[in-house]
Amino acid sequence: MLSQLWNGILLVLTPPTVIWLLVGTAVGLIVGFLPAIGAVVGVVLFLPFTYGMDLATAVVFLMAIYATGQYGDSITSILLN
Are 66 and 40 in contact (CB under 8 A)? Predict the structure, then answer.
């Protein structure tokens, strides 16, 4: 069981996955910052980009967009009061 956990961690920490994690974080912050677009819409908009990716990379990319989009919504809410 611990070997499967270790294999999963090594799969997520590959260089292409980490790069797509950073790209997803930047995209999610921009999508979340826009008032009319939320995190779910951002995930749906960038879903076609994941068709050619590996499964782990695509899931990490979409999760980064969603999580950062939720954070980006609070930036607009605080600034506009």
Answer: yes
Contact 33/74 with Cβ under 8 angstroms? Answer: no
Asked whether the beta carbons of 21 and 59 are under 8 A apart, the reply is no
Model-wide pTM > 0.85: yes
| pLDDT tens per residue across span 26-69 | 999 999 888 888 889 999 999 999 999 999 999 999 999 999 99
Whether residue 38 contacts residue 69, with contact meaning beta carbons closer than 8 Å, is answered with yes
Query: Could you say which DSSP state residue 51 is in?
Result: T
Q: Residue 47 and residue 15: Cα distance in Å, rounded?
A: 21
**What are the two backbone dihedrals, phi and then psi, of residue 37, each rounded to the nearest 5 degrees?**
-110, 130
Question: Tokens 């008032």 sit at which residue?
Answer: 35
